[in-house]
Structure formats: structure tokens, C-alpha cells
């Protein structure tokens, strides 16, 4: 509790130092705890930091000079602000947000099967669910490559397709998180670069996993640039209520520097103080030792059961794809199989 209070007090995004640090010495070694507010620290920043902290520490012990500073995320924020300001009322980016609104001019809420109403506020829990081991992950990724399938959207299409299949109308609405830096110049920068894009998925009867993937990927290609409009900005421009409900993402370990050393360094992410809400955040984390479904969710029994159900279905589907026994191979006439 003392450690948590210290980190929470230091990690405030509106005042310096906006990050908290503490070391604890044990008979098994010295452990570094670092805390950041998610408003100024996106998912890829976590990956960068888990690699950078051990390297900086080793450099200090070796007497090396400090490395050059990375570009500030504030510079990116300025670039992004200028891009958003230049968008007109008829821009495709704004249209993407407008088309996602329901009849009440709101973003649709969570899937019904999650069992959480939009107005509810629950304490959050964080769980990490193993989906595939390292060998199984490699097998699935090889199958994706055989079909020229994007790894990220291949995994997400399976996850979301299974979630949609549980709904009465076989549809689901969600936000897709973007983590990419705008250029390699910001490759080592820590900060907030992520955006979100509103999307939806309606499963056609007897659609194959590949057809579901194609639908999701084509929708992404049309809407991805809407992430330049932050939710408060889109809400103001459209006089709408735009708040997150279900947010999904994919993180690929091969893009994370030093990921192969995380297990040796006992590196892990923990959930800090989180306000009660009805939001669910699902992200597929594909690492060298396997693929995991990381989930932050309102801690109710029904919601957890829903999450475990789609996790189990996703594993079953992916195993079938990896072993070539799943309907992923059932192609329409206009989709060539390899």
C-alpha cells in the first residue's frame, strides 16, 4: 500500500515529474517499479521502457555517457493538432466518426453478452489470458503469411468474430487502438502517440474466418486516418457523445526492442488505480514465448465469464487455423486460396 500510494502520488499527468519510481531490494535482487499515467504513456512506450531501463542502468554502472534524448512526444502532438485543425466539416475522417454514431448521437455501447450497461460503473480488474504458446503462435503466423494476411488483423478478426457470434444480431461495435509512431524518428520516444478508430463488424451467415478478416481489413483501410481526430474533438464537432466502450488492440513483440530479455528481467505490466467505469479494453499481445489476451474490464462475474468464453473460442479457432483444420481455408470463388 505504501508503494502504491507513492507511485500514484508521483504519476500525475498534469504536474512534474508525472512519473513515479521506486526500488525495492530483496535477497533475489533489486526491483525497479515505475508508474505512468496512461494519458501520457501509450502501450508502445511501455515496450520501449522495459528495454530502456535495464540498458540505462547497465550504462550507468559501466560509466558510459548518457544517450542522446529521443524526440519529444510534444512535437508529435503539435503536428497532430495542425493536421486535425486543417480538417473540414466534410472530411472523410470526421465522416468516419459521424457514421459510427447511433440514433441518439452516441457511440454504441458494449456487446450485450458482456452484461454491462452503459450507465454502470464498476471497479476494474486486469487479467492476462494465455491463448497460444510460442510454437502454436509461430504456426498460426505462418498460416497467415501463406494467405498474405496481416498478423494483427488476422488475430483481431478471430477475436472479434467470436465475440460477434455470441450476439443475437451477430454484430459488434468497437474502437481499434493505433500504436504506430508517425516515423522512425519517434521510434524511441516515450509519450502518447496512440489514437482510436470507430469500427463495427457484422458476421454474415456461414462466413469463413478469412472473409471476416477481409471485411475488417477493408473497413480499416477506409477509416484508419480518423484516429487524427481525438474523441473530445470529434464529439465537439459533431455535437455528439463519444466515449469509449469496447477498445481492442494488437501488440506485436517482434516490434518491441529487447522483448527477448523481458522474461529474464522479470519484466511485467501492472494495473494502477483506475476509475470505475463500463469500459472494456482487450488487446492481443504476441510475444516470443506466446500470444496472450490482456484484458482490463469491469469486475463482474458475468463480464469475466464473457471474456473467458471468447478467449477459449479464440484459442480453439486459432489452433484450427494453425493445424489447417479450420474453415479459414474455405474461400469464396473471388478469393484465391494458396
Provide tags for this entry.
9 helices, disordered C terminus, single chain, globular, 36% helix, 338 residues, alpha/beta
* Terminal-residue CA separation: 56 Å
Structural class: alpha/beta
Name the shape in a single word: globular
- In the sheet with the most strands, the strands line up as 3-8-7-6-4-5
Radius of gyration: 21 Å
The sequence of SSEs as H and E is HEEHHHEHHEEHHEEEH
Low-pLDDT regions:
331-338
Mean pLDDT: 88
Give helix % range: 25-40%
Count of DSSP E strands? 8
Oligomeric nature of the chains: single chain
Major sheet, described briefly? Answer: 6 strands, mixed
Helix count equals: 9
* Proportion in β-strands: 15-25%
Explain this structure.
The protein is an alpha/beta fold and 338 residues long. It is 36% helix and 20% strand. The chain is built from nine helices and eight strands. The protein has helices at 2-10, 43-62, 73-85, 92-99, 134-146, 151-165, 209-223, 231-238, 301-322, and strands at 19-26, 29-36, 124-133, 171-178, 195-202, 246-252, 280-287, 290-298. α6 crosses α7 and α6 (151-165) crosses α9 (301-322). The model is unreliable at 331-338 (pLDDT under 50).
Describe the protein's topology.
Layout: H1 2-10, E1 19-26, E2 29-36, H2 43-62, H3 73-85, H4 92-99, E3 124-133, H5 134-146, H6 151-165, E4 171-178, E5 195-202, H7 209-223, H8 231-238, E6 246-252, E7 280-287, E8 290-298, H9 301-322
Helix pairs in contact: 5-9, 6-7, 6-9
Task: Give a nutshell description of this structure.
Helix content is 36%, strand content 20%. It is of the alpha/beta class and 338 residues long.
